[in-house]
Write a structure and sequence with these properties.
Rossmann fold, BirA Bifunctional Protein, domain 2, five-stranded mixed β-sheet, eight-stranded mixed β-sheet, elongated, alpha+beta, 15 helices
Length: 407
């Protein structure tokens, strides 16, 4: 028997109803806030992710599904199944000249992503994300709205008791001094860091703070190291921007805590970064993460454009939401005349009513038994009903029935 690949999962049965509810909530919440849905391809040029996500990240170095395509008669190229969607949305933003439109340009998406990693609860090799991207607004209102949209969506799904963690990474100018300070502080401990952090030390020192290796974490907790990590390094403009973001969140009654260790796992972030966590998910507690990426559009070939966004793992969210129960059909047609039953089904479905009939043409008792399990009403369509032009409708919750000329 051929089984699903490791790290992938079939979504079937009642689970699909909960997934549909999550997606419908996303559409309702985001479109009400003037976000337009965007659907990008599930594979892109590998170079897009190397440049956009960053070659110092675990995603690019370890987790991407990358393929060479082409042959003798075609120029070889490398494509990658998307490990995240911000880079793809930015590529579409540039390619379709969306920057010519009046800002802000606001998008939301829902779809599968792919990363090669060890499967565990809430983390698969094919997984799904919901996200938003907002282009063209440098003002802190965009940062605050992004966080607001995440909270509003989560509350619409019934998920509560979440923790918002907030930090600022500053701009490239002020962050350079911080990077150098961290490198200087960690230099005596370089040989004790994990192999990944040794690479990050040269390419992107801030990424070391996101390391989950226990030995690295112990080094970061040393007083002289922690003093550097927790220092206030941002320039006046970045500090003022971050202060305004916090004031807006206070005005929106969104509770948050400052976490100076929060850097996020992607290279393109600057200034505001945030995560929304749930203590019900154990060690993998983050449900949503995002922040500003003001330099990414220009980095990928567009004009300089401020931007902010976030992504949310649907598999993790699924663990938190209340599961949707299956809704019964409006009607089940009980009949020994399949042609007439099918005609009536077609009529009712066109009216927006849910209904079904017995395709196996079993005995009335068996059909009624099935109807009682899956429908609110049974429509009995026998010889008398067909000849005289009426319907016998049975209420399956109390057993009463009546004759109707129309349904």
């Amino acid at each position: 028997m051929i089984k699903a690949q490791r790290g992938t999962k079939d979504i079937i049965g009642l689970d699909t109803l909960t997934w549909q509810k999550i997606q419908q909530n996303a559409q309702d919440i985001f479109q009400n806030a003037n976000y337009k849905e965007i659907r990008t391809p599930i594979f892109e040029a590998t170079e897009l992710f190397k440049r956009g996500v960053g070659d110092s990240t675990d995603i690019v170095n370890k987790e991407m599904y990358t393929f060479s395509v082409g042959g003798k008669d075609k120029s070889e190229s490398s494509i990658t199944l998307r490990p995240e969607n911000t880079a793809g949305v930015v590529r579409a933003y540039i390619e379709h000249n969306i920057s010519r439109q009046s800002p802000p340009q606001k998008f939301w998406y829902f779809g599968p992503m792919f990363r090669y990693e060890r499967p565990q609860a809430g983390r698969q090799r094919q997984f799904h994300q919901i996200g938003i991207e907002l282009f063209g607004v440098e003002d802190p209102t965009a940062d605050a709205e992004a966080i607001l949209m995440a909270e509003e969506f989560l509350k619409s799904t019934g998920v509560d008791n979440l923790e918002v963690e907030l930090n600022t990474l500053g701009c490239p100018k002020c962050r350079e001094a911080y990077r150098n300070s961290i490198k200087e502080a960690l230099k005596p401990y370089l040989d004790k860091l994990c192999d990944d952090c040794k690479v990050r030390y040269e390419k992107n020192p801030l990424r070391m703070l996101d390391c989950k290796d226990e030995n690295c974490q112990k080094i970061f907790e040393l007083d002289e190291i922690k003093k550097v990590i927790l220092s206030d390094y941002v320039c006046q403009d970045c500090a003022q921007h971050f202060e305004e973001v916090q004031k807006l969140l206070d005005a929106l009654n969104i509770k948050y805590t400052r976490n100076k260790m929060l850097v996020r796992g992607l290279d393109y972030y600057n200034r505001t970064v945030f995560e929304i966590k749930s203590n019900l998910l154990g060690s993998q507690s983050a449900v949503c993460g995002g922040g500003r990426y003001d330099g990414l559009v220009e980095m990928l070939g567009g004009t300089p454009t401020p931007a902010v966004g976030w992504a949310m793992g649907v598999e993790r969210l699924f663990e938190l939401v209340q599961k949707v129960d299956e809704k019964k059909l409006d009607y089940f047609i009980v009949s020994k005349y399949p042609k007439e039953a099918m005609k009536l089904c077609k009529k009712l479905r066109r009216k927006g009513l849910s209904c079904d009939f017995d395709m196996q043409n079993r005995k009335f008792a068996k059909q009624l038994e099935k109807a009682a399990k899956i429908a609110n009403y049974a429509i009995i369509l026998g010889e008398d009903e067909i000849e005289k032009g009426f319907y016998t409708v049975k209420n399956l919750s109390n057993g009463t029935q009546e004759q109707r000329s129309e349904i």
